[in-house]
């Protein structure tokens, strides 16, 4: 399996081949997704909220993001490794963004930086590219931008047929602005089946999406933990994921407890 590159991903768009990205937060999951041939492994800043139980997605720090990205880097050999900024460096300006990106490159060995909400900070994309750091730039409908579009925030999969007139052109302009700023890839949130294909058709670089995306994009990125039902809330969920690991863990550890309490030897340990 060969090392993925940004030019290779851009060629995949030209060839009509879909790009596969996975969000991971630990060494072992990184090894697994790298082994199955993921094109991008993304270390999302939601790790603090979704995995560590922090009160909100803004609580995670730069040092914490460096630590989790270092762990993922050890498990990734072939995929492109991307990391998100925590809230702060991008909002503080282009110089701050460059300093933070350099830390990610030097201390965690990332291949590129994903800028959430990049459409509001095109100068940061330009500055990172000038510093030689590839950018995966996010844009689209978020809770913050929904009001500007005159709509309630939700999945664009259902709302796309009813978006206000002119939204398609506005999002195409945002995408083109980020492409012109030097972004290597785009992350289109809540693209929907109407606006999404229109943006994809206008861009020379790959347009990938997570929540609110679909097969109309050049590729998809999904949190591994969500796809496999890892979180505790999956214990009470009937969602159609690819697995429900939480229920498997619950069953296995319940059996472990029963063996301990019954005085039986526990599985996976020497019998003598």
Can you offer a commentary on this structure?
The protein is of the alpha/beta class. It has two domains: 6-227, Phosphoenolpyruvate-binding domains (TIM Barrel, Alpha-Beta Barrel); 229-272, no CATH class. It has helices at residues 6-15, 27-35, 47-50, 62-75, 94-108, 122-130, 143-146, 156-159, 167-180, 195-202, 224-227, 245-261; strands at 19-23, 40-43, 80-84, 112-115, 135-140, 185-189, 207-209, 219-223. The protein has an eight-stranded parallel beta barrel with strand order 1-2-3-4-5-6-7-8, surrounded by seven helices. α5 links the parallel β3 (80-84) and β4 (112-115). α2 crosses α4 and α9 (167-180) packs parallel to α10. It is globular and about 65 Å long.
């Amino acid at each position: 399996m060969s090392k993925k590159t940004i030019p290779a991903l851009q060629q995949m768009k030209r060839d009509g081949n879909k790009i596969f990205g996975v969000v991971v937060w630990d060494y072992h999951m990184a090894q697994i997704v790298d082994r199955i041939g993921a094109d991008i492994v993304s270390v999302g800043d939601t790790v603090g909220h979704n995995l560590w139980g922090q009160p909100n997605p803004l609580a995670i720090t730069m040092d914490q993001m460096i630590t989790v990205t270092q762990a993922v880097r050890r498990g990734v050999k072939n995929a492109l490794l991307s990391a998100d900024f925590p809230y702060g460096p991008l909002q503080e300006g282009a110089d701050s963004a460059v300093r933070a990106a350099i830390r990610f490159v030097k201390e965690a060995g990332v291949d590129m930086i994903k800028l959430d909400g990049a459409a509001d900070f095109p100068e940061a994309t330009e500055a990172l590219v000038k510093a030689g750091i590839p950018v995966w730039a996010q844009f689209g409908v978020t809770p913050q931008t929904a009001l500007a579009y005159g709509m309630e925030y939700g999945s664009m999969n259902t709302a796309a047929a009813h978006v206000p007139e002119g939204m398609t052109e506005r999002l195409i302009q945002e995408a083109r602005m980020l492409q012109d700023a030097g972004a290597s890839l785009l992350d289109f949130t809540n693209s929907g089946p109407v606006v999404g294909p229109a943006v994809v058709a206008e861009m020379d670089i790959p347009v990938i999406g997570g929540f609110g995306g679909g097969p109309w994009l050049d590729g998809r990125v999904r949190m591994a933990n969500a796809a496999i039902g890892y979180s505790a809330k999956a214990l009470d969920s009937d969602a159609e994921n690819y697995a429900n690991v939480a229920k498997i863990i619950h069953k296995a550890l319940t059996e472990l407890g029963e063996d301990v309490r019954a005085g039986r030897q526990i599985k996976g340990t020497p019998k003598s």
